[in-house]
Amino acid sequence: MPTGWTIGAVVLVIAVLVVLGRGESWRLPVPAAFAMGGILLAVTLSCMSPGLMQSAVLRLEGSAATQLQRNQKMGVVLGLYAAWSNRLEQERMITEESVAALMEQFRSEEAQPAPVALDQVPDIVFITSESFFDLTRLPGLTFAQDPLPVYHALAETGTNGRFLSNTYGGGTGNVEMELLTGLSSAALKEGDTITTLPSEVYPTLPSLPRLMKQVGYDTMAVHSHNNTLYRRAEIYPAVGFDQMLFIDDFMTQPEMDGPYTSDASFARELIARYEARDPSKPFFLYGLSMENHQGYTPEKYAYDSGFSPQADALNQTDLDILDSLVIGLNHADASLGMLVDYFSQVDRPVMLVFLGDHLPSLNLENGDTLYQRLGVVPEKGGEESAESMFELLTTDYLVWTNYETQPVPDRTDSCSMLGLHVLQQAGIPLDPYFSWLASVEPQLLLYRSGLYVDPAGVPTFAVPEETQAMLNWYTAVQRSVVYHP
Question: What is the mean pLDDT, run by run of 10 residues, along the chain of 485 residues?
Fold first, then answer.
């Protein structure tokens, strides 16, 4: 069957012949005639032997060291043809056959990693802390004393940096599932989210807990709230957790601070669950906190933070609203300290991962957000840039271990790649899916709704041409993982 390009070429040739056959009195200027001749020659050769033509043009393009030399050698016509040929070559790589072959590797039992010994890998405690971020980095905001002393002290000796979420202000369950699977919501069909897929999809998805179970880990997820949100009671066991526990399942007595279970109570439950684990197996403990959840109002807590936040751009009502966020963040920081104090004393190697799922959408008295008022992003009606979207998607993360003498260097990370990096840092053998994700990682940190962030953490709305083929491949594979397992 002829391609659209072949049909178009034939139509172009026929149209030119018809015009010439009409005997018009006008004549093309010589340069234009040569250009038309070049186009007709390229079209004819392309139709007769597209592979030969493309190969010759790409060899000519490759013989030039710079773009200027390529322009001088090839001219406009062959330059356009070379660009088209390059795009065809990129698309040729993303065939149904190539994706199907990769999917076969993902499913191959022979390619899966073997169990590891207990002394080869650490226990991993992975905390998604509700709306946590380092608010001390916001411009123009000061405090009487540091509200995040534990995080800042650990950042001096552990691995930390900016964390790129896939959302702002909400959607925690979708962030968590991207962390656990390495899948990107940008690769899903329009209208789908990673927590609203058909139930039969989740048992087939590659994931951290599934891989960890395969190599010998016990896996558990604990949420300090109920089971009403994001289908967690169904989805988390389906993606590989041995147990998914909620507040009604707590071994310890839950305590409230504000309208939700306190982060201190959450930390005590995680410690209790760790102590009750099977010590003959490595343990993956995934925790989801709740205390710092919106809304942020002066009435959320019956007391003030004591940290006296100040900013010239905020009035007293705004500062009172902000103070409820300061309290929640400070309590999350204190719970991190409780966990580090405990795991510093255990006789097993432990890796603790702590991150904020998304930036809180804190609205001030007149409806502005905190970030608009402090100049982090444009005011209402202002043009959104890649840099401002980057800021709204950015929280903070920390990786601490009780066994490393030299931590991994600080870096910007993301919900797409942090799970992979945890596996690599822990020395857990990768399955074919995470090995494939590792092959993509040198070109990608995050891709979301047209925003591309490169591995150096540089955001742009204009995807570099040399990166587009990789993104096409990335999307095709991930769609196949989700929709054609």
Answer: 47 48 50 51 49 47 42 56 48 74 93 95 98 98 98 97 96 97 93 96 97 98 97 98 98 97 98 98 98 96 96 97 98 98 98 98 94 93 88 97 94 97 97 97 91 96 91 94 90
The whole model's pTM is what?
0.82
Q: How far is CA 212 from CA 262, 435, 478, in A?
A: 29, 14, 21
Are the C-beta atoms of 360 and 169 separated by less than 8 Å? yes
CB 58 within 8 A of CB 64: no
CB proximity list for 154: less than 8 A, separation 6 or greater: 160, 336, 340, 398, 400
Q: What's the CA gap between 467 and 473, in Å, rounded?
A: 10
Q: Name the E strands within 207-312.
A: 218-223, 243-245, 256-257, 260-261, 283-288
Burial status of residue 390 (CB atoms within 10 A of its CB: 0-12, 13-18, 19 or more)? buried
Phi, psi of 295 (to 5 degrees): -90, 160
Give the CA angle between residues 107, 108, 112 to the nearest 5°.
100
Q: State which amino acid sits at residue 110.
A: E
CA-angle at 348, arms to 342 and 353, nearest 5°: 60
SS3 label, residue 407 = coil
- Per residue in 43-73, pLDDT (tens digit) is 454 444 444 454 454 445 444 433 444 455 5
pLDDT digits (tens, 9 = 90+) for 193-209: 999 999 999 999 999 99
Structural contact between residues 85 and 56, judged by C-beta atoms closer than 8 angstroms: no
Residue 66: exposure state from Cβ atoms within 10 A (0-12, 13-18, ≥19):
exposed
Residue type, 343: F
Helices (H), ranges, 65-171: 67-93, 96-107, 149-157
